[in-house]
Amino acid sequence: MEKKRYAEPIDAADYEEPRCPLCMESPEDEERVHSIDMRRVMEKLDDYLARKDYAAAERHLEFWLGEARLGNDKRGEFAVRGEQIGFYRKRGEADKCFACVDKALDLMRVLEYEDSVSGATCWVNCGTAAQAFGKPELALEYFERAKIIYDKNLPETDARLGGLYNNMALSCVARKRYGEAHACYTRALEIMEQVKGGEPERAITLLNMANAVEAEHGLEKAERKIEQLLDEAETLLAAGDPLTHPELAEVIHPGYYAFVCESCAPTFGYYGYFLAAKRFADRAREITEQLT
User: Fold this and answer.
1) Predicted confidence band at 292 (pLDDT cuts at 50, 70, 90)?
2) CA nearest 290: which of 84, 52, 12, 37?
3) Residue of 134, 139, 146 lying closest to 169 (CA atoms)
4) Residue 21 in contact with residue 61, Cβ under 8 Å?
5) Over the stretch 105-149, which tens digit does the pLDDT of each residue have?
6) What is the pLDDT of residues 53-103, one digit of tens each?
7) Cα–Cα distance between 79 and 68 in angstroms, integer?
8) Distance CA 148, CA 249 (A)
9) Four-residue CA torsion sign, 261, 267, 273, 274
10) What DSSP character marks residue 8?
11) Residue 215 burial by CB count (10 A; 0-12/13-18/19+): exposed, middle or buried?
12) Please, what is the average pLDDT of the chain?
């Protein structure tokens, strides 16, 4: 079988029974819900992102957004909007990202998800978008809403809580609320220590802590603490490689690990850990090439 090319347009055969406006048999049919399969959506999205085929990933999300609308599947539409928020945030496209934030919040109200775990996850997505585009105060507002819901509904070892606390800390640092940031980072580490495959997230948190320490105390005064944090982060990031540690393959997607390595490499380089920076940048490239 011929292998697909790297940036080949999305093939209709990739999708399960797409709907079209002409498929509706009667006015009553418009009220029926034809749910999209988010598992399939996410598997294909992860594949495109792992190969850095961002144009195909964007088309993929737009396609399934349309399918959800045609199928009157507001839950599916809500889920796709959440993925779009993250996608456009990572791509640095603020206008598209905040347009999706507005749509997701509207759907949250329609679905009455404001006090649900799904709603809290939406608040987190909106908060990370606000933080990424220089709105830390708004981000903290979103994160606080999510925290109230997560605290009531999730076990203390849930990875979603770890991600929330890490993101809250970033916003606190941006507002120079260093004490609160340190407490959030510590809590994030405590949670992710209990999560299988939490090594990459813990490495990210440690590098964020190094940046926070520098911001609060300056590079010279914080040098020893920063070195301690970077040493630990380097060890954890290496230990979280799912291709060299097969027991982690079921919980860490190789494409995600490559993304983390690529994201962490510049921070190692900034603090003079040039070998670590090259090691993880090379590893990200190797994994991406294997997945392409």
Assistant:
1) confident
2) 52
3) 139
4) no
5) 999 999 999 999 999 999 999 999 999 999 999 999 999 999 999
6) 999 999 999 999 999 999 999 999 999 999 999 999 999 999 999 999 999
7) 10
8) 32
9) positive
10) P
11) middle
12) 90
How many CA atoms are closer than 13 Å to the CA of 188, on its beta-carbon side?
28
DSSP 44-110: HHHHHHHTT-HHHHHHHHHHHHHHHHHTT-HHHHHHHHHHHHHHHHHHT-HHHHHHHHHHHHHHHHH
Q: Tell me if residue 128 falls in helix, strand or coil.
A: helix
- Enter the DSSP assignment of 170: H
Helix/strand/coil for 203: helix
Model confidence band, residue 2 (pLDDT cutoffs 50, 70, 90):
very low
Contact 238, 271 (CB under 8 A): no
116, amino acid identity: S
Average pLDDT estimate for 193-220: 97
Structure tokens at 160: 């979603």
Other C-beta atoms within 10 Å of 240: how many?
22
∠ CA 28-67-149, nearest 5°, is 95
Q: How far apart are the first and last CA of the chain?
A: 16
